[in-house]
Amino acid sequence: MTNFNNIVPSLLVVFAQFTFAATHLDYAPYFFDNGPNSNSGNLALFSLSEDTPVGTQIYILNGTDPEGQPVTYGLTFEPGSKELFRVDPKSGTVTLIEELDREVQDEIEVFVSITDGRNKVTEKVQVFVMDVNDEKPQFQNLPAILDVRESTRPGSSVYKVEAIDKDTGSGGSLTYYLQSSDANGKFGIDRHSGVLRIKQGETLDFEKSTTHFVTVVAKDGGGNYKGKYQVLSSSSTLTINVVDTQDTPPIFVGSPYFGYVYEVSSPGSEIFTVFAKDGDFGNPNPIHYSIDSGADAVFSINKTSGCISLRAYPAHLRKEMFHIKVKASEVGPDGELMDYAITTVTIRVVDLNNHPPTFYGENGPQNMFELTMYEHPPEGEILRGLKISVNDSDQGANAKFNLRLVGPGRILRVVPQTVLNEAQVTILVEDSSAIDYEKSQFLTFKLLAVEIDTPERFSATADIVIHLLDTNDNAPQFSSEYYIARIPENSPGGSNVVTVTAEDPDSGLWGEVKYSIYGAGSDLFLIQSQSGIIYTQPWASLDAEVKSKYNFYVKAEDREGKYSLAEVFVTILDLNDHPPEFNNNFLETTMIIGAPVKIEAIDEDAEEPNNIIEYSIMKTEPDNIFDINADTGEIVLKSYIKSMDIVQNITNQKECTWSVVIQARDRGSPSFVTTTVVKIDITEAVKSRVITYFLSLRRRPSTVFNICLSTVSLAILLTVFFSTITYWRSVKKSRVQPRGKIRRVVRRPRP
C-alpha cells in the first residue's frame, strides 16, 4: 500500500509533462528545394562560372520554420579548405569572396545551415565551377632542336608538335599553323594532328641553308571570358638543323685563275696554286688535283696542294699564253676518286717589269719644264712652248701607263691619257678664265706617268711651271654702285661734294683710271679726272627752295676705253634764309563772338624746322581781349567775353574794331621774325551772315561797286527776257487759222 502511494504521484508528474509537451511541440526549420537552376534555396547542385568577379552576390539561402520563428543562416567549409563564400545570417545572401579557378577546383563542398534558435539543420551540398576560356595552350615538346638529313624526301614527316589546353569544350580544342614568316618556307603542319612535314616540291640543301627556324602557333577554339568572346594562342620555335650528305661536287675557290711566267723564271718555279673544297661542307672529303689538258708537258701540278710548277725555261716556251684544265676530285673513304670539278688556269708568259716611265725634253731626260705665256689663252689651244715626251722601255703590258696632270682645278688637260711604250705629250687649255694674272702670276702642275697593269705600279713625275704675262682684261670697278652726298645750299662755288674711287686690277698703264661725269643733273658739278673728287662749279649757286635733289653718273675709264659707271645722288641741305610772310587776305576780318578767326603766314624755306611758324600777339588796341594758337594762327576772344555788351564796356565806342599786332617766327637757326597789324571787327553772334557781310563792306568800296553793277545788269536781262516772251505769245494768237476740210461719213445698213 505504501509503494502504491509512492507510484501514483510519479505517474501524475509524467502525465503532466507529456500533456505540456503535446501542447507545446517545436518542429525544426528547413530549406526550400528550388532545384539546381534556381538562385535561391539550399545551394545544392548550384553551378557558378569561374570568371565571376569577387564580391558578386551569387545565391540566396532560403528556408522557413514551421512555427514561423525567424531563422538565421550559416555556411561553413571542410576544415583546411579555402573559404570561397560568405553568407549574411539574416538575409541568406551568399557572396563570392575569393577568385575561382576550375582548373584547380571544379567542385566545392559547402555546409549550409538554418536555425530558429532552438533547432538547427545542416546540409552538405556541392557547388559546381563552370569553365571559361581563360587558359592559353601549352606546348609539351617545344621549343626543341631537331636534326634532319638533307636527303629527306618531300612530304616526309619530321616532327609531331604536342600542346594541351586545360579549358574544356571549344576553349580546349587546338589547331596548329606556322607563323606568317614561315608560310612560304620549306615546311608545313597538319592543323589538327600537329605533324610537321617537308612541303611537296621542296627539298633541304645543307649548302644553301644549314638551319631553319620554324615558329609554330597553337590556337584554341575560343570561348567567353568575363562577358567577351576571346581566342587564345601560344607560339614556340622549332630549330631544324640540316645534316649534310655527299651530294655536291668540289668547288674551286677564287676562280677564274691567272698566272704569269716571267723572263727570270726557272724550272721548278711555282707559277700558281689552285684551291678546291668539297661542296658538302658538313662532312667534306679530301681533294685530289690533276691536269686534264693544256699543259703541253711544260707544267705540272701537286696532287695534294694544287700548286702548278714550271718544268722548262721560259725561253723554250713556244706560246705566250697557256689555258690549262685542272681537275679536282673527291677522295672516298676507300681511296677511290668520286665526284669532280674542272676549272681553267690561264698562264701568260710576260716580260719582267724593270723599267719605270721616263720624261724627256729636247736635251734628254728632264723633270722640270717652264713656259712663259699671256693670260687667258683661247680654250683648246696647245701650249707649244712645252716640248715633252715620255717613254717606258719594257714590253707589252709592262710598258702601258697613264698620264695625268695634277694642279689647281681643271685648267689644263694632257693628251694622250694612255700610252704604250712612248708618246709625245701635248698640254691643252681647258679653262681659260682660270689662267688669270691678277689671281696668280705663275701656275705649277705635276705631270704623272703611272703604270696600269703591273704589280709594281712604277711611276714618274715632272714639274710644269707656267709664268703669266698681264693683258688689259679688266675694266675699272667702283668701290660702290652709287654714292650719296649732302652739301648746304649756301656753299660757295668750288666746294668739295664727294670723292669716288675705282680700281683697275690690271698692271702698268692698263691699271690707270680716268674719271668723268655726265647726265642731266651734272651741270652744276665737275670732277678731277685723276683723283675722283667732285666739286661744285665755280659759278654754281645752290638753292634748296629751287631744287634740292641732283643725280648724275660718274665714269671710270682705262686707257683702252674699258669703263664702268656709278650713280651719284646729291642732296642740297636747306638753310633758314627766308622770313615768314603774312597773307594779306587775312589782315582785315570780322569776328563773331564765340567763333575764331585765322591768320596765315608762309615761309618759303624747303625743309623743317626752317618753314615751321609760331604765332604770338605782341600788342592790341584798345585792350588785349584775344588769345592766339601758336601753331595754327587761330585768334579767339578770351574766355570771359560772352557778349557785345562786355566788348562795348571795354572800348566805350559803338564800332568794336581792334588793331592787333601779330608776330610770326620760324623755328630755324637763326630764326626770322615778321610782324603785321590785323584789323578785327567784333559783332554779335545772333546776327545773320548776310548782315555781317554787309557790315564788312564799309571798308571795301570797290566790292560795293561791283555788287551794284551786277544787280543792275541782272535787272536789265530779266526785263528783256520777259518782254520777248510776251511778244511771241501775242504774235501766236493773231495768226489766222486755216480752213479745215469736212469729211462726210456714210454708214452702210447691217444685213
Notes on the protein architecture:
It is a single chain. The protein is mainly beta and 751 residues long. It folds into six domains: 101 residues, Immunoglobulin-like; 106 residues, Immunoglobulin-like (Sandwich), CATH 2.60.40; 100 residues, Cadherins (Immunoglobulin-like), CATH 2.60.40; 112 residues, Cadherins (Immunoglobulin-like), CATH 2.60.40.60; 97 residues, Cadherins (Immunoglobulin-like, Sandwich); 109 residues, Immunoglobulin-like. 9% of the residues lie in helices and 41% in strands. The strands form 18 sheets. Strands 32-31-34-38-36 form a five-stranded antiparallel β-sheet, with no helix packed on it. The longest helix is centred in the last third of the chain and has 33 residues.
CATH structural class of the largest domain: Mainly Beta
Q: Can you tell me the residue ranges where pLDDT is under 50 for at least 5 consecutive residues?
A: 18-23, 736-751
CATH architecture assignment of the largest domain: Sandwich
Give the mean pLDDT.
83
The major beta sheet can be summarized as: 5 strands, antiparallel
Provide a quick synopsis of the model:
The protein is mainly beta and about 750 residues long.
Record keyword descriptors for this entry:
single chain, 751 residues, mainly beta, Immunoglobulin-like, 6 domains, five-stranded antiparallel β-sheet, five-stranded mixed β-sheet, 4 helices, 58 strands, disordered C terminus, cell adhesion, membrane, Cadherin_CS, signal, receptor
